[in-house]
Design goal:
- With 398 residues, the chain is an alpha+beta fold.
- The chain folds into three domains: 104 residues, OB fold (Dihydrolipoamide Acetyltransferase, E2P) (Beta Barrel); 61 residues, E3-binding domain (Dihydrolipoamide Transferase, Irregular); 211 residues, Chloramphenicol acetyltransferase-like domain (Chloramphenicol Acetyltransferase).
- Helix content is 26%, strand content 26%.
- It has eight helices and 17 strands.
- The radius of gyration is 24 Å and the shape is globular.
Amino acid sequence: MAFSVVMPALEMAQETGKIISWLKKEGETITKGQPILEVETDKAVVEIEAGADGILAGVTSKEGDVVPVGATIAWIVAPGEKPPAQSTAPAQTGRTMTSAAAAQVTSAAPVPAPAAKSGDSGPQISPKARRLAKEHGVDITRIKGTGPNGTISSEDVMAAAAAGSAPAPAAATESLSGIARLMAERTTQSWTQAPHFFLVREVDAGALNAAREKFGPQIERDRGVKLTHTDLLVALVAKTLARHPKMNASWAGQGIRLNPAINISVAMAVKDGVVGAVIPKADSTSLADIAVQRRDLTERARANKLKPADLADGTFTITNLGMYGIDSFNAIIATPQAAILAIGRIADRVVSVNGQPGIRPMLTMTLSSDHRVVDGAQAALFLADLYEALTKPDSLLS
């Protein structure tokens, strides 16, 4: 019996997936659970596993193709068996799947297409694209869809919105990856809907440097990973958040949700944007384990190997541009989180030391907060406690 390999739904509201590479060729024998292709979603590149033993056959989508969720892209057949006739209608699913179950096994029965029509006429358009068109005031009748059978996708709508619904010269059009497109949509949504306010605090980083020198060598010997300032910040921010639950909360539409766990999201640069890789329960995780997890996430982010689970459930974000020589900056909140902490470089500056001019390694922190969740006084108290933690890290890390 033939089993279909479909484009899985790996994330909420995912409409399509882009095939990055086939790890197995048509005609090769595969076993259940074996990775057979890589798919790019809005957040990460994920390996898709085979859902059955057999031979890969009937591959209908090539590398680079953007395929609707639920569409059959290949078959797994028994030796001597031919794949069924390909149905062109993709399956509709609202279920979020894990990467382990990504190669879903389904029957060959035709299922409805995800594109929605306006009444009985007009262009085919996905639900998400229709919503974006309404939000941006885009006339969908003036858009030529690039999806299957001319379906208008969310990418088509955003391109039309950016161009004022007028065709742009070919040389001026830059195609965005799923990650870059999602980043553009979410930062716009956060900036326009979340009332940001910003607090800035300078801190002497001498004690932070000393903590790195104190704990770093032991962690490197025991765990084989170099301790970074970001690791120390994750640990200290998490422990400070435990005393300020409102800073670890989320805006839930009509109210505030206090998150039960402190999951620190670390902003990481990837090929076409920035993602927030999450270190869960960071307040109760050892400094060594934080360093190991951060290194693993960083390496997989650079290799485009992050999984959806690596990016889920963050409750507070740290973004560090110090390694780029940036002194300070204002960051946009990763909604529905309540705040994001922007970290600049550690640089020697002339400051007052016991009433006399002195040179100290100074660090600038900028806290962006959502005024729907916290007020200025609450954010200031959190930043004051974090200041104290950074000047006396040993008391929290030992």
